[in-house]
From TrEMBL:
This is Transcription termination factor MTERF4, chloroplastic. Belongs to the mTERF family. The lineage of its organism: Eukaryota, Viridiplantae, Streptophyta, Embryophyta, Tracheophyta. GO terms for biological process: developmental process; DNA-templated transcription termination; RNA splicing. Pfam families: mTERF. One of its GO terms (cellular component) is chloroplast. One of its GO terms (molecular function) is nucleic acid binding. It is found in: Plastid, Chloroplast. Transmembrane segments: none annotated.
Length: 442
């Protein structure tokens, strides 16, 4: 029986003739029509030429069409124009439409109302900003092919169940939309369970994922586990791993063995810090693995030029690794104030190298002048290493309380704050938050 194709009545013979003519045309322009055998083609070569020219006009090449020749089965007016018009409406730039179709040509077969609109509504429901929708789709166009009630919904539900704030899911999608296509059982949950087994609480892990969703893309067997084993092999203590990961989550996805080997050799050769000292440095400041060596040398050379020996500088860096990331200009100002205004000895900086990490104008000067007005003489750590409230308490106290060490993190337990042995339940609940804010601020 004859069929109606694109408004032209054709019998079987006419259809075969038209197919041969269209295939010959496609061959002449370099398109291989082999995959089009099962596809219903237009009745005339003019209609096919219109499709090819339209696709080329939006930026596709013959090679791009050969990658997915089934796009030639889409009508310009019924499929291509409505789909591309909708993409432009939701934020995709017209100049990027060709690139988008090249990356995900299957979109041309979709129905705007039935398939595209529900996905966009789903993304908006996750709090993805309207102006970010186009960016998200350009980054991960395969989103358009997922079922809403399937992978996307379950991955979001699982992350919320471990403590991710629902309001942060939108920014997470904008930053790393690929997690919407990850299976919970085979990808997300095994990674979460492994990190929890290292001592990270789910609350801290949730805060990490909110800020750095790309952690979910690290391969557990190929990258994460080998990197954790690498840290241990370089001398880091197992109970410090939660703190290391919370401070610098990217360490789980770096080519870590090469970086650690290079930095350990550099620290030993140039700074005279042995492998054990290097491990302590990484525990306190894991970002050191990615710090350029010429950046590290600038503060070191400054300290050497101020009368500290190489051994002294090595001790100071092991005590306070943040020294190697400071701006030399700020260090100069702080050192000048220390020598000229405070008139103190270098040994005090050797005992408390953290002095250089505090702001001269907002902390060191104001607090020092308050001490001067009270006639109080104390160590650097006593008046700098405390909050404003604690400083006021110390300033007006009848005695100088003994100094204590800073917060410490115990694997699988709460954050221990020296001097606060008795803590209420509410305070205990906030310990994980306190650790996370402290480590991230480093």
């Amino acid at each position: 029986m004859p069929t109606v194709t694109w408004g032209v009545i054709q019998g079987r013979k006419e259809k075969l003739v038209s197919r041969v003519i269209i295939c010959d045309y496609l061959k002449t322009i370099g398109i291989i029509p082999d995959e089009l055998e099962e596809l219903e083609l237009p009745s005339t070569v003019e209609v096919m030429r219109e499709r090819v020219e339209f696709l080329q006009k939006i930026g596709l090449t013959v090679d791009d069409i050969n990658e997915y020749p089934l796009m030639l089965g889409c009508s310009v007016r019924k499929n291509i124009i409505p789909v591309l018009s909708y993409f432009e409406k939701i934020g995709l730039q017209r100049s990027k439409l060709g690139e988008f179709v090249k990356n995900y040509p299957q979109c041309l077969h979709t129905s705007v109302v039935v398939e595209l609109v529900p996905v966009i509504k789903f993304l908006r429901g996750l709090d993805v900003e309207k102006q970010d929708i186009g960016y998200v789709l350009m980054k991960y166009p395969e989103l358009l092919g997922f079922k809403l009630e399937g992978t996307m919904s379950t991955s979001v539900a699982y992350l919320v169940s471990i403590g991710v704030n629902p309001r942060d899911v939108g920014p997470m999608v904008t930053q790393y939309p690929y997690f919407l296509g990850m299976r919970v059982g085979t990808t997300i949950k095994p990674l979460v369970d492994y990190l929890v087994s290292l001592g990270l609480s789910k609350k801290i892990l949730a805060r990490m994922l909110e800020k750095r969703a790309y952690i979910l893309g690290y391969d557990l067997e190929e990258t994460v586990k080998p990197n954790v084993n690498c840290l241990l092999s370089f001398g880091l203590r197992k109970d410090t791993l939660p703190s290391v990961i919370a401070q610098f989550p990217q360490i789980l996805g770096l080519p870590l063995k090469a970086k650690l080997s290079s930095q350990q050799y550099f620290f030993n050769l140039k700074l005279k810090i042995d492998p054990d000292g290097f491990a302590r440095v990484v525990e306190k400041m894991p970002q050191i693995v990615s710090l350029h060596q010429h950046v590290i040398m600038k503060p070191v050379e400054f300290l050497l030029g101020r009368g500290f020996s190489t051994a002294d500088v090595a001790k100071m860096i092991v005590k306070c690794p943040q020294l190697v990331a400071l701006q030399v200009g700020l260090m100069k100002n702080s050192f000048y104030f220390f020598k000229s205004d405070m008139g103190r000895q270098l040994e005090e900086l050797l005992d408390f190298p953290d002095y250089f990490t505090y702001s001269l104008e907002s902390r060191i000067k104001p607090r020092y002048h308050r001490l001067q007005s009270k006639g109080i003489r104390c160590s650097l750590a006593w008046f700098l290493n405390c909050s404003d409230q604690r400083f006021e308490e110390r300033l007006y106290g009848d005695y100088i309380e003994p100094e204590s060490s800073g917060p410490s993190f115990c694997m699988g337990g709460k954050l221990e704050l020296p001097g606060n042995e008795i803590v209420s339940e509410e305070e205990e609940d906030s310990d994980d938050e306190t650790l996370y804010r402290r480590t991230v601020s480093l």
